[in-house]
Amino acid sequence: MMATSPARPSTLSFFSLSREIRDKIYEFALASSSPLSAWSGAPLRSCCKNWQWDHRGLLHQFSKTSSIESKDDSLMLRRTLRSLLRCNSKVSCESAQIYYGKNTFRFCDLYDWEDVSIWLQDIGCTNRGYLTKMEFLLPCTNFVRQNSEGIRGESVRVDGKWSFTSENTRQRHPLLNQELGTISDSSVEDIDPEVETIFQFLGKSTDPSKVTIKILLAPWTVPGFRFLEEDYDSSFGLDESWFTMDLPNLMEVFRVKYNEGVRVVDILWTGIERSWVFEKHSDEIEAAGWEIAKDLEPVKAKYIEELEAFWPTEQLTLFALRRKAIIGPLIASEPGVFC
């Protein structure tokens, strides 16, 4: 009688693990506790500044620690993701879902809205559906001249004479209505039409996951509302941190318009203000069209500590705003005090 050989133990493979365990492994390899720098078009050194304040008290970058972590994590995780994407189609799909779904993607420094839409296009429709968190350090507002007829353009000198031409200038978005006779000859905000493209990309998804967009405002800034000089000392240049409701209004309209599938897109406008100033004007901020959100995620205490180094005797508050639902046609804002 021949002896039977012992049965071979079954080979344990990665795919013999449950999806839940595989996701934990992917998350350990691909998820970062700090935001990832989605836009790397600016020189690395410009993303690694400490808190930078100019004569107006405006914040230009996040903390040195946060920025360096963001850059280092971004580069390391992209390399890891590229390696996993080359394994096979199943690993590629599962790892991409964790990478785009568990990380916060931040745009800062020298970018414009077109760079965002290019990035969204490049990552593809499937990966766009996995996104859950994006942050934007608001790009500098561009201004253009608008004449009393509502035409935007610039003054050019031809044959020794000055004339007004609109040939190379974007005109006001058609959703922003203005009544003739109420328009003054002044400078107005020039809003990039690529903002609409971004919401087209984000809204056309069958993935039910919610995506939250955070707009990171400079300190002491609420769109459409100007804090009073009496709230600050004479060294603050509040006029230069002002911008109107045109961008928030258009973003809210686009958010609703392109919410075609099951996906929910949420926009939070977040900023920093001294507690007593924000509380004093909270009713006026709401009257300007804002809802003061109550579900802002906790922010690391170290950010407050760094700010309190400048104002050690004052308490600062972190706030989040949502644009209230817009009813009726949009009316273009009057030129800001800085325009």
Architecture blueprint of SSEs:
Layout: H1 19-30, E1 36-37, H2 64-85, H3 89-102, E2 104-107, H4 113-130, E3 133-137, E4 142-146, E5 152-158, E6 161-165, E7 176-177, E8 186-190, H5 194-203, E9 211-216, H6 246-257, E10 265-274, H7 275-280, H8 282-287, E11 290-292, H9 301-308, E12 316-323, E13 330-331
Parallel strand pairs: 1-2, 2-3, 3-9, 7-13, 9-10
Antiparallel strand pairs: 4-5, 4-8, 5-6, 10-12, 11-12
Helix pairs in contact: 1-3, 2-3, 4-5, 5-6
Short description:
Helix content is 32%, strand content 19%. With 339 residues, it is α/β, with parallel strands linked by helices. The longest helix is centred in the first third of the chain and has 22 residues, at 64-85.
Through-space gap between termini: 99 Å
Structural class: alpha/beta
Instruction: Enumerate the strands of the largest sheet in spatial order, edge to edge or round the barrel.
Output: 1-2-3-9-10-12-11
As a whole number of angstroms, the C-alpha radius of gyration is 24 Å
- Total E-strand runs: 13
So what's the oligomer here?
A: single chain
Largest sheet: 7 strands, mixed
Q: Roughly what fraction of the amino acids lie in strands?
A: 15-25%
Element pattern in H and E = HEHHEHEEEEEEHEHEHHEHEE
Helix content: 25-40%
Name the average pLDDT: 76
Shape: elongated
Q: Low-confidence spans: pLDDT under 50, at least 5 residues?
A: 42-69, 234-238
Count of DSSP-assigned helices: 9
